[in-house]
Design a protein that fits this description.
CATH topology: TIM Barrel
CATH architecture: Alpha-Beta Barrel
Strand order of the largest sheet: 1-2-3-4-5-6-7-8
CATH class: Alpha Beta
Number of strands: 8
CATH superfamily: Aldolase class I
Largest sheet: 8 strands, parallel, barrel
Radius of gyration: 17 Å
Helix content: 40-55%
Number of domains: 1
Strand content: 15-25%
Order of helices and strands: HEHEHEHEHHEHEHEHEH
Number of helices: 10
Structural class: alpha/beta
Length: about 230
């Protein structure tokens, strides 16, 4: 794979660090890497959004990166999704006030398993209303869902007005699979974006996910690979 193709893939990456042990120093490095490699965003814990958004702005100004590139992204209802809708709405508003450009929310998987798809769509709608013109990605945690539930969630995410459906938090029993992306792409038919997250181990994996219909990738591994390759040259 040539450098141009790798750059295209990196531009679709949400460079991510959501580990419980993440420090501000770790987040600063993540931001530096994301700007260097022109990733789509950094996806960071809510407690770091204010400082992270400010730091990203400084880095982009220094390096001449357009304001609409390398966005600040954070998560709400993370990682289990079973906080109340009101809590998620508050988290979304708080994140935006702190400078978040994009929000990744986790659904209540238990509601989906109980067949409450309409209630889930309404929660998404309320969070999207709070997010306004910011991008909202909805994490459905595919490893817990049947294929039929995945299809239902594709429609619930669209009905709720979100911008992306996202496979996984990376904190459950499994991440994105090629089969999941193929299934989602078939249901969505290009009406919203698809974010594959969790378990993307190589640029070849990433390329395959994008071939199948993913338009965003949630990972930190690809930047690590790009950094390692650069050091070898």
């Amino acid at each position: 794979m040539d450098d141009q193709e790798k750059a295209r893939i990196l531009s679709a990456c949400d460079h991510t660090l959501l580990k419980q042990t993440a420090s501000w120093d770790d987040i600063r490095i993540l931001c530096q890497e994301a700007v260097k490699w022109r990733c789509a965003s950094v996806c960071i814990p809510p407690c770091y959004v204010r400082d992270g958004a400010d730091y990203l702005r400084e880095l982009k100004e220094e390096q001449g990166v357009p304001e609409d590139q390398v966005k600040a992204c954070t998560v709400i209802g993370f990682p289990n999704g079973y906080s109340t809708t009101e809590s998620k709405v508050f988290e979304a508003r708080d994140a935006i006030e702190n400078g978040a450009d994009e929000i990744d929310m986790v659904i209540n998987v238990g509601r989906v398993k109980a067949g409450n798809i309409g209630q889930t769509a309404e929660e998404i709608r309320q969070v999207k209303e709070a997010a306004g013109d910011r991008i909202l990605k909805v994490i459905v945690e595919t490893c817990f869902l049947t294929d039929e539930e995945k299809k239902q969630m594709c429609h619930a995410v669209m009905d709720g007005g979100a911008d992306f459906i996202k496979t996984s938090t990376g904190f459950a029993t499994g991440g994105a699979t090629f089969g999941d992306i193929r299934l989602m792409a078939g249901e969505i038919q290009g009406r919203i974006g698809i974010k594959a997250a969790g378990g993307i181990r190589s640029f070849e994996d990433a390329a395959r996910f994008m071939e199948l219909g993913a338009t965003r990738l949630g990972t930190s591994r690809l930047v690590r690979l790009a950094e390692a390759e650069e050091k070898k040259r």
